[in-house]
Amino acid sequence: MNKIAALLIRFVIPLATLYLAFTYLGTAGGIILTAIYLVIMNLSMIFNNLATRAYRSGDHEKALKRLETALKLGPKNYGIRGAYAWLLLKLGHTEEADVQINQTLSEAAREDIKRPLYVTKALVHWKKGEIDQAITLMEKVIENYKNSNAYGTLGFLYLEKGDLDRALSFNLEAYDFNNTNAVILDNLGCTRLLRGEYEEAREIYEQLMNLRPSFPEAFHNYARVLAHFGELDQALYMCRTALTLSFWNTSTITKEQVENTLKELEEAAEKKASESDQEEEYEEIKETESADI
To answer: CA-CA distances (angstroms) from residue 90 to 27, 132, 138, 161, 247?
Structure first.
C-alpha cells in the first residue's frame, strides 16, 4: 500500500498535473511548471552537489551544513546520509556519526549497498576505542568488497592494534592489489618502520613521495625513517611539511605528535652541528700544534 502511495505521489499525480498545465496554461506555462517540478523533486541532490563543491573548495563546515539540508529534503537517501556520517566522523562528531551510519545501514536494502557503509562504521568503532570490533567488521567486509579503501582501512587497523605480523602480511597483499594507492603505501611503509626494517621502509616511502601524498602521516613517517639514517636536514623538511597539512579526527597521528617529533629532530640536528663544530676546532688545534713543532 505504501509503495502504491509513493508511486502516486512521485509520478502519477505530478504527470497528471503537468498534463493539465500544458493543456490549460499552454506550452510556456507547462515548461515553467515542469522546470519548477524538476527543481523541487531534485532539491536534495542539488544541495548534495553544493556540499561536494564546498568540500572540494576546503569549506568543510559549509559542506556539512549543505549535507544536513540535503538530508532534510531527502531523508531516505542512504547515499547522502552515508556521506553525512563520514563527514561528521572526519570533523570529530563521532557519536552523531555513529547514529547516522547506523540509520543508513538499517535503511540500505541490499548488502552490496551496505559494504562501503561498513567501512565508515568500522572507523566509528576505531574512534570509539573499539578496535577489535572494527577489525572484525572489516575482515568480514573485505571478503566480498576488495578495493583500495577497504584495504587501506583494514591495513591501518592492524597497525593500530599493534599486530605487526598480521599488518605486514595484509599490507603486502594490499600492495599487490594496488601499489599506487598512497594510504596502502603508507600502511606498508609504517609497518616496515615499526618492525625496524628501515631499508624496506625507505624504499616504500621513496615510492610514496612520488605520488605527492596530501596527508601528514606519510611525511611524518618518512621523517622518522630518514632520521634513522642520520639524514636530519631532509627529515626536518618532511616533518615541517607534515605540519602544513590538515589533521582530522580520522588522522592516525595528531599535530602534537608531529610537533614533538620535530622538536626531537631539531635537538638532534643542533647536537650534530655542535659536535661537528667541536671536531673542526680540534682539527684546527692539531694543525696549529703541528705547525709549531
So the answer is: 48, 20, 18, 20, 9
